[in-house]
Amino acid sequence: MSELRSLEERKAEARAMFVDMASMNENDPRRGALRDGIVEIHLPLAEHLARRFGHRGEPHDDLVQVANIGLIKAVDRFEIERGLEFSTYATPTIIGEIKRHFRDKTWAVRIPRRLQELRLAMTAANAELSQSLSRSPTISELAARLGVGEDDIIEALEAGGAYSTVPLDTDPDDDRAGPSLGETLGVEEATYETIENIASLKPLLADLPPRERQILVLRFFEGRTQSQIATELGISQMHVSRLLARTLERLREGMLATN
Amino acid sequence: MSQVIRLTVPAEAGYLTVVRTAAAAIAGRLGATVDDIEDLRIAVNEACAVLLTEADPGAELACRFDIGDGGRLGFRVDTMSAQGEVPEPGSFAWMVLESLTGQVAVGIDVEDGVRTAHVSFVRPVGVPENA
Fold first, then answer.
1. Are A68 and A46 in contact (CB under 8 A)?
2. Which residue of B has its CA nearest to A240?
3. ipTM more than 0.90?
């Protein structure tokens, strides 16, 4: 019974198949069967990794499929001569495939194009109105400016939140080199220490990108409004909102994982 | 005169979008700004999310919005929880809620042998002066 074979046995079997494959000519018809066999042995690994990225709004089956594609890529690229264990090589490849899926496809798949466009227009209108009104606009003001219904605005706000589509990587523009948390906060370091004292948060905060951490501190511990933070950091208020929601989600997941 | 909106959803993360959207729509009706709405949405999400993990299997989140006088919006979420905990003052979830809303309350009730946990807050969502 293949299910009853131990992990070690399956690993050894995969290793032998890789060795066989390496000894064959590129066009050897037997390669296909070996490749399938190796993939099949590692399907549980792909499934396991896909599960780790569940609860982010993507159907489980889709994630497993993406993970399987990553697995196949790993099989094709793996070079047994390097002496690495296949699972060691495959894990980052599969995770990379899943992350790419979230980055490239999630937004487009889940958010209708109409909402994406409205969302972009709304970000611009929000900035303009905030400027002219010297405060954050209301839903009806945004709706009037854009010539859409208030329901559309509410829908677009929700669509823009990071709640159901949590990107696993930070946006490229999040990586802009900026002042560190300490530099930015200066005398406000004490507040940071307060949150650091919540033991379970410590390692999670340390893992946050500096800007996410800074926004978190400014909003929740310094009492700045989202608009104020946006102005201070030179990003849109919508972006602040999205980063906040995403950071909370991330911390919550992290705390659950450590509990 | 105050008005009440009740909304019950399965205690699953996927349904929080329904609660958040309701929160945004209610605040929008009250003339709240986008800033207020986004804060409210995060607060509602946080209050519900902390109970999700405590809810009994198959339980529901019973949400209640109270539109009070003077642009104050109350939110309370209850769920059946045989053994769950609610966030303690000083915990991260508490600090997040407090900073977003200013007024947080949590509690465990036992009635007729049924144990429920709740989180609630009140938040001003006033109409801006120059609206």
1. yes
2. B38
3. no
Task: Give B24's pLDDT tier (boundaries 50, 70, 90).
Answer: very high
Distance CA B81, CA B115 (A): 6
Answer for the pair A54, A166: CB distance below 8 angstroms, yes or no. Answer: no
Label the pairing between strands B103-111 and B72-80.
unpaired
Mean per-residue pLDDT, A84-90: 85
On chain B, the residues whose CB falls within 8 A of the CB of A138 are 28, 31-34, 127-128, 131
Contact between A87 and A39 (Cβ < 8 Å): no
Alpha helices (H) along A26-173:
30-52, 60-77, 86-101, 107-110, 113-133, 139-146, 150-160
Tell me what percent of chain A is helix, strand and coil, each rounded to the nearest 5: 75, 0, 25
Amino acid A168: pLDDT: 31
CA–centroid distance for B23 within its chain = 9
Q: Tell me the three state secondary structure of residue A137.
A: coil
Alpha helices (H) along B12-101: 16-29, 34-52, 92-101
Measured between beta carbons, the chain A residues lying within 8 angstroms of B89 are: none
Condensed to tens digits (0 to 9), the pLDDT of residues A22-56 reads 888 888 888 888 999 999 999 988 988 888 776 66
Number of helical H runs and strand E runs in chain A: 14, 0
Cross-chain Cβ contact A139/B32 below 8 Å: yes
Counting beta carbons within 10 angstroms of the beta carbon of residue A220, is it exposed (0 to 12), middle (13 to 18) or buried (19 or more)?
buried
Radius of gyration of chain A (CA): 24
Q: Which amino acid is at B101?
A: T
Cα A152 to the chain's mean position, in Å?
26
| Tokens 């509990």 belong to residue | A259
Closest residue to B17, CB basis, from A135, A137, A163:
A163
Report the residue from A151, A155, A220 with minimal CB separation from B96. Answer: A220
Least CA distance to A242: which residue of chain B? B38
Q: Which amino acid is at B11?
A: A
Q: How far apart are CA B4 and CA B51, in angstroms?
A: 21
CA A182/CA B90 separation, integer angstroms: 23
